[in-house]
Input
Amino acid sequence: MVHSIEAPRVGPQVSAYLDDTYLEQVDTRVIAVGERDGMPWAAVEHCLFHPQGGGQPADRGWLDDTEIIPVRDRESGLVVAMAGEGGSVLPLAEGQKVRARIDLPTRTAHAALHTAGHLVEAVGRVQGWEMVGSNHFPGQARIEFQAPQADARLTDPEGREELTVALRAAVAAAVADDLRVFARCLADGRRVVHLDALHAAPCGGTHVRSLGDLAEVVLPTLKVKKGRIRVSYTATHVSYAATHVSYAATHTATHVSHTATHVSYTATNRSR
Output
């Protein structure tokens, strides 16, 4: 499990998704209800759902048997559950007991990509680069850097491949060492995610327990455009890669479609 020193709170809401990446369900209660753009929402005390943000997609989840989409409400700061496409959130009342549940294979896939992004950032910083952008979405994952000082290797294909090989080796070594991943909440409220002693950065995303949980970490040759160094990458979670097909067989056709997309995505990257 990836634990913070203290589970972050927004008012009465506990951000349980940050305290334990692998927590699949929790019994909790409704603490607020409201509307957003004319659509009803409900917020629960122990929030299991990661909303889209920080370059990471939202979790797929349910309140009891109703599928929801988690969204950060600007006014309250709460993560609220809204209806999925074509669905509706059942009428809920404050104080009502509910069971919150996430699609754990999707969660671990997102956590693997986000953690791998931190690792790519770490090895890029070893080269003296500064991160200027990131994206941890499946099929779009990348870290963008800028080099404060000129590096001749960035100007020709052989040099870029040489740098990519160095990044791949550093990533592989960190994964082989199974560096611990953990989070600390600072006194000012910031949550900082650590890859053992290798790297630390403020982050509100979900992460794997240790780098040994990462599988199929692939870095195509980096690209340089308009002064930015783009390092694309892919990664999966070791247990997710082994279990997502059987998990999908017990769920809805929508989830089967999601799984097929993931399998196609993985196969495409293996062929590169």
